[in-house]
Design goal:
single chain; 552 residues; alpha/beta; Arc Repressor Mutant, subunit A; Rossmann fold; Serine Threonine Protein Phosphatase 5, Tetratricopeptide repeat; 6-stranded mixed beta sheet; 5-stranded mixed beta sheet; 52% helix
């Protein structure tokens, strides 16, 4: 007897997940809530104002368009839908969206199919899934649902009684740490304000149940004074941390604030005045305090991870912060100076595993980006030695395992070894975007497209405005021959940076694969100024001219 084919799309409210063709599609909270709303009102126009009210409440005074657009893209991606020829989610220009495709909703008792004309479908039933659903239920099933309903009422009452600060007093499961302001404006102190922000991001990223936005996405706000509620919606987080740093003689001051974006109010603020010799301790205190104010219920192991001291030497820590600050500039001169700072930090504390990991990352970057002056074989050898030493010193350092995995992917092509290192890195740091990104590369090389997409989407969830990650996801879709999704992803990358040199040539490849030669030629010609004197564009352009029947 043949097994029944699963419905194409199932929305399982009991498990809070969406399945396509029987396979679970990863979908974060915001797009999941959006899909639920649209499925509830299948066939109806749902306006953007209604979406804002459902997802964020009525008292929203900022533009949520960017967050809605991101959520819509994620829903379409989960459903393998195409915005230009939608099978599920239709855009009503200037108004909102309409869910038009078949979907089976599992409400916690029995599945409810919304396919037109299907037995037991939603036709003739109330539009809201929260209303009564006519179906055959046993007495025990009705009792169970009644018990669940009663429990929900009790929970709601307790939540109302226990509300202190944020809604229902629940832990905030997502946070963005904005770059702390250098209050004095001294360029020599810039590394400290950036370093405190980055240290807080890295420490919070060690916690398994907290989504922490990556450095690249939050540092685009550096030097600006954005509306924090808008930032939260753009990045898809509940909480935002901001602050400022001042240096005074042999001491420094850190002012920090935590905002609940959903309630649009500040939950907590504090100022720390410390001596320079207390820099390491101050960072540990700050991370612990923020975690507490986020109302995270931490296990003993998680508290240990959060409070873990990487070095006891404040000067070694300063040197490490300077190295990280320069390594993020990614120019050859800055990277070479970063190497010096990491080496000086190691000289002061030979067991400073984090400094070895930073050194490994810089050598990897030198090998790939500046190989005219850093021969790849030599640079990767230095990177490997530093990464192995970091793991030897501290086997529970997520960054070190991610560094080692990156080398195994980029230079060794040791996919099994790399996967092992990335798995360990993510066990120790669930928000480690570097590990997610490079493990996605690993899976892509092995043709494991579903796993590659999963990691790419997870990485992008914590770093939503990273051009590199958007381009990588586009490459994934291209190699998986999901050309419409690839087009959407490359267009997103160009929205973020219209002058990115790689986005247009890659977009042209997708147009070529779809037989859209005129569009491919237009993208390649637009990319030519970025690749003068190279064959990066000329070769593909000549090929597409030939396919289009044109002379070069």
């Amino acid at each position: 007897m043949e097994e029944p084919v699963p419905p194409e799309v199932e929305l399982d409210l009991a498990r809070y997940q969406v399945r396509r063709g029987g396979r679970v599609q990863r979908l974060e909270k915001l797009p999941m809530e959006l899909l639920t709303l649209l499925a509830e009102r299948r066939g109806e126009l749902v306006t953007r104002a209604e979406i804002v009210e459902r997802l964020w409440g009525r008292d929203v005074f900022v533009d949520a368009d960017a967050a809605i657009n991101t959520a819509v893209r994620k829903v379409r991606r989960a459903l393998a839908d195409d915005s230009e020829a939608p099978r599920f989610l239709e855009t009503v220009v200037g108004k909102g969206y309409r869910f038009v495709g078949p979907i089976t909703v599992i409400s916690g008792a029995e599945p409810m199919s919304s396919a037109p004309g299907s037995p037991g479908g939603s036709e003739g039933l109330p539009g809201r899934m929260g209303a009564a659903i006519v179906s055959k239920r046993s007495a025990s099933g009705r009792w169970a649902l009644g018990a669940i309903a009663l429990a929900m009422v009790i929970v709601a009452v307790l939540a109302g009684l226990g509300r202190l600060g944020a809604r229902a007093g629940k832990a905030m499961e997502s946070v963005a740490v904005l770059p702390f302001e250098n209050a004095g404006g001294d360029p020599e102190a810039e590394y400290l304000s950036d370093g405190i922000s980055e240290s807080l991001i890295n420490r919070l990223s060690r916690l398994p149940h907290l989504k922490v936005i990556a450095r690249a996405s939050v540092f685009r706000y550096k030097g600006k004074h954005p509306d924090l509620a808008s930032v939260a919606r753009e990045l898809g987080v509940r909480a935002v941390v901001s602050g400022r740093v001042s240096q005074r003689g042999d001491g420094f001051s850190v002012s920090v604030a935590l905002m609940d974006a959903r309630e649009n109010k500040q939950l907590w603020g504090a100022t720390y005045n410390r001596r320079s010799s207390d820099l390491v301790v101050a960072h540990e205190e700050l991370a612990a305090e923020v975690a507490e104010k986020l109302r995270l219920e931490l296990t003993a192991t998680e508290r240990t991870l959060l409070a873990k001291r990487d070095t006891a030497d404040p000067e070694a820590y300063r040197l490490y912060l300077r190295g990280r600050y320069l390594s993020n500039e990614r120019t050859e001169a800055a990277l070479r100076k970063a190497i010096e700072y990491f080496q000086e930090a190691i000289a002061r504390d030979p067991r400073y595993a984090l400094a070895y990991s930073g050194l490994a990352d810089v050598h990897c970057t030198m090998a790939t980006s500046y190989n005219k002056r850093a021969a790849p074989r030599e640079a990767y050898a230095r990177a490997r030695a530093a990464a192995l030493r970091a793991v030897e010193i501290d086997a529970e350092l997520s960054e070190a395992h991610a560094s080692l995995g990156q080398i195994l992917v980029q230079f060794d092509w040791d996919w099994a070894g790399a996967e092992k290192e990335f798995r360990r890195a993510l066990e120790l740091g669930p928000s480690n975007g570097v590990a997610l990104h490079w493990r996605s590369h690993c899976y892509l090389a092995l043709g494991r497209f579903d796993e590659s997409a999963r990691d790419s989407l997870r990485a992008l969830d914590t770093d939503p405005v990273s051009v590199m990650l958007n381009i990588h996801l586009g490459e994934h879709y291209y190699l998986a021959r999901q050309y419409d999704l690839a087009l959407e992803q490359y267009r997103r990358a160009l929205e973020l940076n219209p002058n990115h040199p790689n986005a247009r040539p890659l977009l042209a490849l997708v147009y070529e694969a779809k037989g859209m030669y005129a569009q491919a030629i237009a993208e390649l010609e637009a990319a030519e100024p970025f690749w003068t004197g190279t064959s990066r564009v000329k070769g593909p352009l000549g090929r597409v001219y030939g396919l289009a029947g044109r002379r070069a």
